[in-house]
Design goal:
423 residues, TIM Barrel, globular, nine-stranded mixed beta sheet, Lyase, Ornithine Decarboxylase, Chain A, domain 1
């Protein structure tokens, strides 16, 4: 079972909202730090060279990245702005993993200038990267797509239908080519699931990668120095779901490593993850307020946030737990659709959800929004995205991203030129 709690009491949130009107995101720094320690500790105790590269796309805020960097985490980046965010948070060099696809030349150049680990998504990108840089980097990594050898899951789809990565034959050829062209250090990477809660899935993925590493060595002479398992570890969005047992996964991976890698003489090889969701997801909340109610064929509660602030429920029906602050122990004897104001019927945070009676002005808290929440916001309908607040370990709350204003929305438009424009 997963407890769905919120770190503030009703009077505290009422006072906070007077300074920072809803909607806003709130993150709990202490909880993020504690979980990061637990996550890294579980794998580092079995793999001493273990490193976690936090997936910047999950929560691209430099304050959060700086917190994680102080706990020893690196950054998994997939665009130039994400590289810059990592850099501004003090994460550079091989503490940055640059994994992207259909990548513009200038982004490879910037990643190389940072001495980031460049992870190539296709065999044709070897030529492209060499042309962009003038030479291949000394350290290079390739992303593997196992195709039908590995099941995906509902969120990320089947590997054979995914645009990512190299086939088995391609990746073996890629290592041979890179070694021939001057690369001397190598990594292996994959990412085949998203928000997966079955711990055996990751042990099986490790076995797949370890076996491939042995084959690469046998066929090309290349010995990889690290294997990046990607991300994909899920969190219990629903109260009845169980959180991932990291010790179970780490023990299973270690057993597979000893059986496959050690017996093949390939020890030591570092093990990496690039998770985002489990690091910050459970420790961020979208705080919104009920401003309307509507009673037609269904009962609706309208809140002052919208899908533009949190798109996961509307995008693919993702579940997020919803609570009404101050009414945690009240009977959930009402059934509502909790909705935003976007001109799309998918703008719903909860559909036919049993909740306590909600009145206008009540705080509606959307849980597990600390990853892929504010990060996936957008401006359709000219909606302005929510700001972000951080609860510090000493109880103080600081603003780490202000909410957008109309001036932000219009910043890329030139109204002066409009006055001179003749249609």
């Amino acid at each position: 079972m997963s407890d769905k709690t919120f770190p503030l009491k009703l009077p505290e949130l009422t006072a906070l909202s007077a300074q920072y009107p809803t909607p806003f995101y709130l993150y709990d720094e202490k909880a993020i730090r504690d979980h990061a320690k637990r996550f890294v500790g579980a794998f580092k105790s079995r793999f001493p060279s273990f490193r976690e590269y936090f997936a910047v796309k999950a929560c691209p805020n430099p304050f959060i990245l700086k917190i994680l960097a102080s706990e020893g985490l690196g950054a998994d980046c997939s665009s130039l702005p994400e590289l810059i965010l990592a850099q501004k948070a003090g994460i550079t060099g091989e503490n940055v993993m640059f994994t992207s696809n259909e990548t513009p030349e200038k982004e490879y150049v910037y990643a190389n200038l940072m001495s980031a680990i460049i992870n190539l998504d296709d065999i044709s990108h070897i030529d492209y990267l060499e042309q962009a840089l003038g030479t291949l980097p000394e350290l290079i990594c390739f992303r593997y797509n196992p195709g039908p050898l590995k099941d995906g899951n509902a969120l990320i789809g089947k590997p054979e239908e995914a645009k990512y990565g190299l086939t088995r034959d391609q990746i073996i050829e890629a290592y041979a080519q890179a070694a021939k062209r001057g690369s001397k250090r190598f990594g292996l990477h994959t990412m085949v699931a998203s928000n997966e809660l079955n711990p055996d899935y990751f042990i099986e993925t490790a076995e797949l990668l370890f076996t491939l590493a042995v084959e690469i060595k046998q066929k090309t002479g290349v010995a990889v120095e690290f294997i990046n398992m990607g991300g994909g570890i899920g969190i219990p969005y629903r109260p009845d779901q169980k959180a991932m047992d990291y010790d179970y996964v780490a023990n299973g991976m270690r057993a597979a490593y000893d059986k496959i890698m050690v017996s093949a003489g390939l020890d030591p090889v570092a093990i990496f993850f690039e998770c985002g969701r489990p690091i910050t997801g459970p420790y961020g909340w979208l705080v919104t307020r009920a401003i309307h109610e509507k009673h037609i064929w269904r009962d609706y509660i309208g809140v002052d946030a919208s899908m533009a602030d949190l798109m996961r429920p509307g995008m693919y029906g993702a579940y997020h737990h919803v609570s009404v602050l101050g009414k945690e122990n009240a009977p959930a004897d009402q059934v509502y659709d909790v909705v935003g104001s976007l001109c799309e019927n998918c703008d719903k945070f909860a559909v036919q959800r049993s909740l306590p009676r909600i009145e206008k002005g009540d705080f509606v808290v959307i849980h597990d929004a600390g990853a892929h929440g504010r990060a996936m916001g957008f401006n359709y309908n000219a909606k302005l995205r929510a700001g972000e607040l951080l609860l510090r370990p000493d109880g103080k709350i600081v603003e780490i991203r202000r909410k957008e204003t109309e001036d932000d929305y219009f910043a890329t438009l030139d109204f002066t030129a409009l006055g001179r424009f003749v249609p």
